[in-house]
Automatic annotation (TrEMBL):
Location of this chain's protein in the cell: Mitochondrion membrane
Residue spans of the Solcar repeats: 18-118, 131-217, 238-335
Top-level taxon of origin: Eukaryota
Entry's family note: Belongs to the mitochondrial carrier (TC 2.A.29) family.
InterPro entries cross-referenced by the UniProt entry: MCP, MCP_dom_sf, MCP_transmembrane
Topology of this chain in the membrane: Multi-pass membrane protein
Molecular functions (GO terms): thiamine pyrophosphate transmembrane transporter activity
Assigned GO CC terms: mitochondrial membrane
Pfam families to which the protein is assigned, alphabetical: Mito_carr
Protein name: MITOCHONDRIAL THIAMINE DIPHOSPHATE CARRIER 1
């Protein structure tokens, strides 16, 4: 009997390790695909967020600002970046972005599955869909915090490289890393972490919580359609199109709510960065005392629209990014399970 108990414990331990490996691998692949596909929109978003001048012609006229704005709309920004930096300019900072997003999504999905397993009392993914929305939101928020802390320095390097434009301040990721450590110390690698964690709790909670909610609604709709058409198919599996739409809606909802904190994070990350004068005024070193001060100063100096700079490319990017991430994760996870089981 004792031998059988030990064998069951060993099998359970091996199953947990295998599940964690599947979640981490599927999460990393999903994050990498999503980041590579949406990088051009991310670069435009970052350029808008770190620009102190208005980012639209309407806001520029309304504010009576004499200094010209480098970027005044998505189409104009796209043309400018392509003309000055070529096609590679849209993937500026993509290497640290991939180095960030792959461990980020790997940690996020692994922690998320662990938390849901604990809450549901089962490691089976199909049992997790029946968790209450509150547990889904809480699990997503905690998973997001863990992933953020684990991958944050790469996020900082990505922002610096994507925002610098031409001529380059940092030719490589290594030079950017060395400059941060030299000028700000190792703590500088976590500049802007506070607003990031404040942002990621509602963002990750909303993203994963609404994703599970949309999946439940879609399953209920499928069952309703099956019952009205006298179909015997009661399979809970959703189609790739339905998963894509659920991920699309989840990413959009989360981004619309949390965008102002993302703007604050970017300002902290690039403070003191020397850029060519054509990009406008720079964010001076220690321009903001803390997150609240940054929110107050941005709204005072740039209006409430300043807190939503980059919202259009951010929303356009967040929707497909969320959809691609969730669909890629679901398919990769199912594929890995079929191989390893």
């Amino acid at each position: 009997m004792r031998m059988e108990g030990e064998e069951r414990e060993t099998a359970a331990g091996g199953g947990q390790i295998k599940r964690a490996l599947i979640d981490a691998t599927a999460g990393a692949i999903a994050g990498g695909i999503s980041r590579a596909v949406t990088s051009p929109l991310d670069v435009i978003k970052i350029r808008f967020q770190v620009q102190l001048e208005p980012t639209s012609l309407w806001a520029l006229v309304r504010s009576n600002v004499t200094a010209p704005s480098k970027y005044t709309g998505m189409l104009q920004a796209t043309k400018d970046i392509f003309r000055e930096e070529g096609l590679p300019g849209f993937w500026r900072g993509n290497v640290p972005a991939l180095l960030m997003v792959m461990p980020y999504t790997a940690i996020q999905f692994t922690v998320l599955h662990k938390l849901k397993t604990f809450a549901a009392g089962s490691s089976k993914t199909e049992d997790h869909i029946h968790l209450s929305p509150y547990l889904s939101y809480a699990s997503g928020a905690l998973a997001g915090c863990a992933a953020t802390v684990g991958s944050y320095p790469f996020d900082l390097l990505r922002t610096l490289l994507a925002s610098q434009g031409e001529p380059k301040v940092f030719p490589t990721m290594r030079s950017a890393f060395a400059d941060i450590v030299r000028t700000r110390g190792f703590r500088g690698l976590y500049a802007g972490l506070s607003p990031t964690l404040v942002e990621i709790v509602p963002y990750a909670g909303l993203q994963f919580g609404t994703y599970d909610t949309f999946k439940r609604w879609t399953m209920a709709w499928n069952h309703h359609i099956s019952s009205t058409t006298s179909s015997i198919n009661t399979d809970d599996n959703l189609s790739s199109v339905q998963l894509f739409i659920c991920g699309l809606a989840a990413g959009t909802c989360a981004k619309l709510v949390c965008h102002p904190l993302d703007v604050v994070k970017k300002r902290f990350q690039i403070e003191g960065l020397q850029r060519h004068p054509k990009y406008g005024a720079r964010v001076e070193h220690r321009a903001y005392r803390n997150m609240y001060d940054a929110l107050r100063r941005i709204s005072q100096m740039e209006g409430w629209a300043g807190l939503y700079k980059g919202i259009i490319p951010s929303t356009v990017k967040a929707a497909p990014a969320g959809a691609v991430t969730f669909v890629a994760y679901e398919f990769t996870s199912d594929w890995l399970e079929s191989i390893l089981t």
